[in-house]
């Protein structure tokens, strides 16, 4: 099966709580594992950055579902490409949460000249490295 990676950015719906986000991530972990989709979900300042890796059909189908989900809005596709290997193997949909961008500032400034969280200003490959770095840091 050829492998693809999709990366998008979105904004949380106005009434979304952290508990709602945790519930999305928990359910996503189970469904993604069954679809052989790996990835990560960053939630900070009511913004989402998500990476999905897997087969072209499962990734597209899941993204179509996610696009229709009213728990977020203003979904922007940042990157979609065929890749040779998974960068998020073993992470079915781990959630990384930071109340403010200041909390991940030391990690973020490795990839950005700015301390405010704006994934649209980052290149897709850089977003991948950034999210991976945060997940690894969280695991330690
Ligand atoms: P259902 O839960 O019946 O969903 C049917 C439809 O309703 C879908 O369009 C769904 O988007 C929408 N929906 C479901 N629950 C709610 C709700 N409480 N409020 C508003 N709309 C709702 N799911 C994954 O499996 N993997 C992921 O990686 C993943 N990432 C997500 C990231 C974000 C930022 C968000 C907001 C959601 C994510 N989801 C993810 C959830 C996804 O959108 C679906 O809810 C989930 O996949 C189940 O969809 P379903 O069609 O199987 O069933």
What attributes characterize this protein structure?
five-stranded mixed beta sheet, binds flavin-adenine dinucleotide, 140 residues, alpha+beta, 5 strands
Q: What's the β-strand tally?
A: 5
| SSE ordering | EHEEHEEHH
Q: Structural class per helix/strand content?
A: alpha+beta
Q: How many DSSP H or I helices?
A: 4
What small molecules does this complex bind? Answer: flavin-adenine dinucleotide
Arithmetic mean pLDDT? 91
Strand content: 25-35%
Overall shape: it is globular
Largest sheet: 5 strands, mixed
Describe this structure in words.
With 140 residues, the chain is of the alpha+beta class. The chain is globular and about 40 Å long. Helices cover 36% and strands 30% of the residues. The chain has helices spanning 18-34, 56-68, 105-108, 124-139, and strands at 3-12, 38-44, 47-54, 72-83, 94-98. Flavin-adenine dinucleotide (FAD) binds at residues 10, 24, 28, 31-32, 41, 48, 50, 62, 65-66, 68-72, 93.
């Amino acid at each position: 099966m050829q492998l693809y990676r999709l990366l998008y950015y979105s904004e949380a719906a106005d009434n979304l709580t952290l508990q709602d986000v945790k519930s999305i991530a928990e359910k996503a972990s189970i469904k993604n594992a069954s679809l052989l989709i790996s990835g990560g979900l960053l939630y900070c300042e009511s913004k989402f950055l998500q990476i999905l890796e897997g087969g072209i059909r499962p990734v597209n189908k899941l993204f179509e579902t996610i696009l229709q989900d009213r728990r977020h809005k203003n979904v922007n596709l940042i990157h979609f490409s065929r890749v040779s290997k998974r960068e998020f193997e073993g992470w079915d949909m781990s959630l990384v949460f930071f109340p403010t961008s200041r909390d991940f500032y030391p990690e973020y400034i490795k990839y950005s000249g700015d301390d405010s969280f704006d994934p649209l200003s980052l290149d897709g490959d850089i977003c991948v490295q950034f999210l991976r770095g945060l997940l690894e840091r969280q695991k330690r």
